[in-house]
Design a protein that fits this description.
The protein is mainly α. The chain is 85% helix and 0% strand.
Length: 162
């Protein structure tokens, strides 16, 4: 009896970790970036605009793939695997994770678009405001990566059960 309770509690702990680790990693990355003294005096390279443009393209592609994945998941509603997921209550969690990954990607694309509009190149003096903006951008990048990884990992796990 005790052993089952420990397994169940461990499962709940893992679900809690699975749910919050993209946000936790993003917050830690942003705080670390902002508190590192080198970040306050850093000058961005002249190619920073190219990086922002590439990130916008990558986010747009990932949003398209994630939205397609979500629509496919909803379309295969009659499959036994989906029925099992719904029975356990994990289906709604997977749909929320997909929505979260799309939201993270969209926020990173918007932050990168703002980065394109602002002069963050090597000619600008790097102020605390610039460091805070880049810390936010870095946090969004880490959160997006973690959120997309979470979705990919879950779908690989689901596909392995088929």
């Amino acid at each position: 009896m005790n052993f089952r309770i420990c397994i169940r509690l461990r499962g709940l702990e893992m679900l809690c970790l699975e749910r919050w680790y993209p946000l936790s990693l993003a917050l830690m990355a942003g705080i670390v970036y902002f508190t590192v003294p080198l970040a306050r005096t850093y000058r961005m390279p002249g190619s920073a605009g190219d990086l922002m443009s590439a990130v916008i393209n990558l986010c747009a592609i990932s949003i398209g793939f994630l939205a397609t994945t979500k629509s496919i998941l909803i379309a295969i509603d009659d499959k036994p695997l989906i029925a099992d997921l719904k029975k356990t209550g994990y289906y709604q969690r997977v749909v929320r994770y997909l929505r979260a990954a799309i939201t993270w990607s969209f926020l990173l694309a918007c932050a990168s678009a703002v980065g394109l509009l602002l002069d963050i190149g090597h000619t600008t003096d790097w102020t605390a405001c610039h460091a805070a903006g880049m810390a936010l951008w870095f946090a969004l990048a880490v959160g997006t990566g973690a959120s997309c990884y979470r979705v990919v990992h879950i779908f690989y796990t689901l596909l392995d059960t088929l």
